[in-house]
Amino acid sequence: MLASSEGAMPDTMTSEQRSERMSRVRNKDSKPEMRVRSLLHRLGFRFRLHVAGLPAKPDIVLRRHAKVILMHGCYWHRHGVCRPLSIPENNPS
Question: Which pLDDT tens digit goes with each residue over 39-77?
């Protein structure tokens, strides 16, 4: 169920249902992350994954190049071009 970005849509799930759905959201080894890792490896880059000692625990760390890659989806960044989105009414922040 999609809504326009102009207005918030009421949540159609109970708190327990929402908790169950959000618990299934993967924070490691997502399809986009696996594709980026595969591409980097084919290009000859070597990297570390999910380094806990760094701020924000980046998904990919290229130590030799002093670079990190954070993989965040459109839901978290609110990209308007990906698809119509809505701000949750229960927890808008």
Answer: 999 999 999 999 989 988 899 999 999 999 988 766 666
> How much is the pTM?
0.59
Nearest CA among 73, 72, 65, 74 for reference residue 43: 65
**Integer angstrom CA distances of residue 33 from 5, 6, 69, 84:** 27, 30, 10, 23
61's enclosing H/E stretch is strand 60-62
Distance CA 82, CA 93 (A): 20
H-helix or E-strand spanning residue 17? helix 15-23
Q: What is the spatial distance between Cα 72 and Cα 82, in angstroms, rounded to a whole number?
A: 13
